[in-house]
Amino acid sequence: MKRILLTVLGPMCLVGASVFALIWWERGAPPGFLPTPHDVSIQDITRNHRGVRVEGTAHYGLRIVQTTAEVSWYLYPLFEPGDTMGREIKVLVRSTVQPEPLLGFEDLVIEGFARPPGRLIDASITTGLREYGYTFVDDYVLVEPFNN
């Protein structure tokens, strides 16, 4: 009987622990908790950061919205504070909070998760931003605010 329980529960526990560890590693904190945000500048942020506090100027000129069945995500580039002429994207913000419709630029301090864009940012988004005159650095970072 013990052998059967060990045979059944052992792999289940191993898979559960692996999933828990993978989520912890990916988010920088255990599931259900937020990582400690670290102050980082736009130029210094990397894909290896997890919790960040970044200050910059958001460009809302091109209103990009990703819509799923549950939520709408608003995407916009974030540049160095006061930079309204920048066109090379190092940080792209993905938030559920809709920007004010009348704003073109806004100075923000964002606390959130820094991660590689991966499959969250598809070709239509990058193409739309490129058509609007923006370019991407090779290792640009996606930041999702904690307040989502």
Write up what this structure looks like.
This protein has helices at residues 2-27, 123-131; strands at 38-39, 51-59, 64-67, 72-79, 88-95, 105-115, 135-145. The chain has two domains: 1-33; 38-145, OB fold (Dihydrolipoamide Acetyltransferase, E2P), CATH 2.40.50. Helices cover 24% and strands 36% of the residues. The model has no long low-confidence stretch (mean pLDDT 89). The longest helix is centred in the first third of the chain and has 26 residues, at 2-27. Strand 3 (64-67) and strand 4 (72-79) form a beta hairpin. The chain is of the alpha+beta class. It contains two helices and seven strands, in the order H-E-E-E-E-E-E-H-E. A five-stranded mixed barrel has the order 2-4-5-7-6.
What's the quick description here?
Helices cover 24% and strands 36% of the residues. It has 148 residues and is α+β, with helices and mostly antiparallel strands. A five-stranded mixed beta barrel has the order 2-4-5-7-6.
Q: Structural class from helices and strands? A: alpha+beta
Choose one word for the global shape: elongated
CA-based gyration radius: 19 Å
N/C terminus separation: 47 Å
Q: H/E series, N to C?
A: HEEEEEEHE
Approximately how much beta-strand content do the residues carry?
A: 35-45%
* E-strand count: 7
Proportion of helical residues: 10-25%
Low-confidence stretches: none
* CATH class group of the largest domain: Mainly Beta
Largest sheet: 5 strands, mixed, barrel
The total domain count is: 2
